Amino acid sequence: MPETALAHVKIILVEPAGALNVGSVARVMKNMGLSQLVLVNPQCDRTSPEARQMAVHAADILEAAQEIPTLPEALQGCQKAIATTGRDRTAFTITLESPRAALPWLMESATEPAPDRPSWQSALIFGREDRGLTKEELNYAQRFIRIPSTEVYPSLNLAQAVAICCYELHMAIANFAPSPSLPTSPSDLAPLEVLEGYYQQLETLLLKIGYLYPHTSSSRMEKFRRLFNRAYPSEAEVAMMRGILRQMEWALQVARSQETLDR
């Protein structure tokens, strides 16, 4: 796998609070050949003297870093996203993997850009220093990793966690082998914003027909997201599913119009 594949992987930090951490992340990214740093609603100044002090020769990564208001906006253009969590697997119904097992999957997308979408990306998402990612934020990822650590002190510093994952991404280049269980054409995968549009449309329709209720829709939709994220649908498949939803919405409107006429 060419090292240029690393240029397609975004390192996303959600609401980082420490400038020292952000600077350290920039440094290790440059050490390991990554260049795209995205800060979601940062709570610190990435250009501060503290950040620059820790970045050392990676000031260019700090300067080029994007600051984005929300996680969904930061994921635009991405087809694959892995989220990190420090919680153990008993706290979730999701499967937690090790960085070494999961991270090469991001590289599969990076080597096969679609002809009509040459600049799509993959993403690796890290949460806040004090509480990580929320359950809602984890919903935007397709796979999840937890760095194995001792039970005596399992919590890692943000910059340390990023360093471990960047190292695994760097090492995955030499040992890369596509997983036979995943789609054979990663470039056909639907971008995450396309999937998000489908989820929003699905939730709206399910609320209309009474399958979902406002007070439980969030937890129910979380299960739908897990289901479709495991399927890795292509953009054409998502378009097909959205077409079905539109037809259902049309049928509902026709039925309601007929009810009105019959009264």
Molecular structure report:
It is a single chain. With 263 residues, the chain is α/β, with parallel strands linked by helices. The protein folds into two domains: 3-174, Alpha/beta knot (3-Layer(aba) Sandwich), CATH 3.40.1280; 190-262, Helicase, Ruva Protein, domain 3 (Orthogonal Bundle). Helices cover 46% and strands 12% of the residues. The protein has eleven helices and seven strands. It has helices at 19-31, 49-55, 59-64, 71-74, 99-102, 104-110, 135-138, 158-174, 192-208, 217-231, 235-262, and strands at residues 9-14, 36-40, 66-68, 78-84, 96-97, 121-126, 143-145. Strands 3-2-1-6-4-7-5 form a seven-stranded parallel beta sheet. Strand 1 (9-14), helix 1 (19-31) and strand 2 form a beta-alpha-beta unit. Helix 1 runs parallel beside helix 2 and helix 9 runs parallel beside helix 11 (235-262). It starts with 8 loop residues before the first strand and ends with a helix. Residues 110-118 have low confidence and may be disordered.
Question: How would you summarize what this structure contains?
Answer:
The chain is of the alpha/beta class. The protein has helices at 19-31, 49-55, 59-64, 71-74, 99-102, 104-110, 135-138, 158-174, 192-208, 217-231, 235-262; strands at residues 9-14, 36-40, 66-68, 78-84, 96-97, 121-126, 143-145.
